[in-house]
Amino acid sequence: MSKDFKAELRLFGHAIVVFLSHMLMCTIEVAIYISTITGIDSIRAFAMPQYPWANDVLNLISGPALLIISANTRRDYMRFLNLGRFGLVGESTVMHVTTIRSDKKTMTEKQFSLPARMVH
Q1: Could you list the residue ranges that cross the membrane (predicted)?
Q2: C-beta pairs of 19-22 under 8 Å, 24+ apart in sequence
């Protein structure tokens, strides 16, 4: 199996687990709703204690597990958070500067300058 195929299998497995956790949460919420509408306290007594741990499972499986299983997603998050400037992601950034001219005035470079901490 290739590396890409293994990554796709891990992501597919993650999607199935996320779907099942969403279904569990939905089932618990529907049970609570039905018990509230019909007044059957035994269903509510069963469903209410299940809600907190099912919510925790859903929240832990969705985001953090995806960061653990997918190296590309981790890299994208680091790039988005700009952790490359701290030496954590070894990629260079290319900055394009465009000069805007109008009929009366040309904007100066000082108006386009970036703070020193943003320049690599």
Answers
A1: 12-33, 53-71
A2: 21/54, 21/57, 21/58, 21/61, 21/62, 22/58
Is residue 34 within 8 Å of residue 67, measured between CB atoms?
Answer: no
49 within some domain: yes
| Residue ranges making up the domain that contains 92 | 3-115
Residue that has been written with the tokens 């299940």 in this structure: 50
Number of domains in the chain: 1
In a domain, 109, yes or no: yes
Q: What gap in Å lies between CA 36 and CA 56, rounded to an integer? A: 23
pTM for this one? 0.56
- Residues paired with residue 101 on neighbouring β-strands, in sequence order: 106
Question: Which residue type, as a one-letter code, is found at position 11?
Answer: L
